[in-house]
Amino acid sequence: xxxxxxxxxxxxxxxxxxxxxxxxxxxxxxxxxxxxxxxxxxxxxxxxxxxxxxxxxxxxxxxxxxxxxxxxxxxxxxxxxxxxxxxxxxxxxxxxxxxxxxxxxxxxxxxxxxxxxxxxxxxxxxxxxxxxxxxxxxxxxxxxxxxxxxxxxxxxxxxxxxxxxxxxxxxxxxxxxxxxxxxxxxxxxxxxxxxxxxxxxxxxxxxxxxx
Length: 211
Ligand code: SF4
Ligand code: SF4
Fold this sequence. Notes:
The chain is α+β, with helices and mostly antiparallel strands. The chain contains three helices and five strands, in the order αβαββββα. A three-stranded antiparallel sheet has the order 2-3-5. Strands 1-4 form a two-stranded antiparallel ribbon. The relative contact order is 0.13. The C terminus is likely disordered.
C-alpha cells in the first residue's frame, strides 16, 4: 500500500474504533448499573459469607480443635487447667468449662477464610462474620486477641493450680508411704509368727511294731 493510502487508512481505523467504543458506552447509559457507590453504599453480604472471624470467649472451652484444623496455623491458644475447687461454669450449650483460656489470638493477616476452624468447634463459639472492612496500616493490628483474662487473673489461676498440684503430690506421697508401711508391717508380722509344728513321720510300710 502506498504511504498516502496507509495514512488515510490509519485515520479511518482510529475514528472507526473510537465510534464503536463510544457506541458501547452510549448503550450502557440506558442499562441499570451493577456497581454500587462504595463506601457510601454497601452491598448486603450473602447469609453464609466467610469474612472476619469472631470468638465468643464465654463459650470457649480451650479444646484447641480450631487451631488444629487451621491449615495456616494462624490461631494461637494457651490454656491453664482450673484447680479442682474452682468452678468455671458451663457454656451456653451446657458443656462444662475446665480450662482457663488466657490467650486466644488469630492472625487474620494469615487467614485464608477457609472456615475450617469453625466446623470442629464443639461449642460453636468461633464463627465467620460478614464484616469485611478491617484494613489496617500496621500488620500487628491484624492479630486479634479474644482472651479476656487480665494478667492478675492469669497469675491467680497459675498460683491456684500450682498449689493444687503440690497438694496432690503431697497426698499421693502420703498415700504411697502409708501403703508401704502397711506392707512392711504385714511382712514383719509374718516373720515373727511361730513356725507350725512338724508333722509326725508316718510309720514305714514294713514296720509291724514291737509287741
Ligand atoms: S478460616 Fe481457615 S485460615 Fe482462617 S483461622 Fe479459620 S481455619 Fe485458619
Ligand atoms: S474449637 Fe471452639 S471451644 Fe475449642 S478452642 Fe476453638 S473456639 Fe474454643
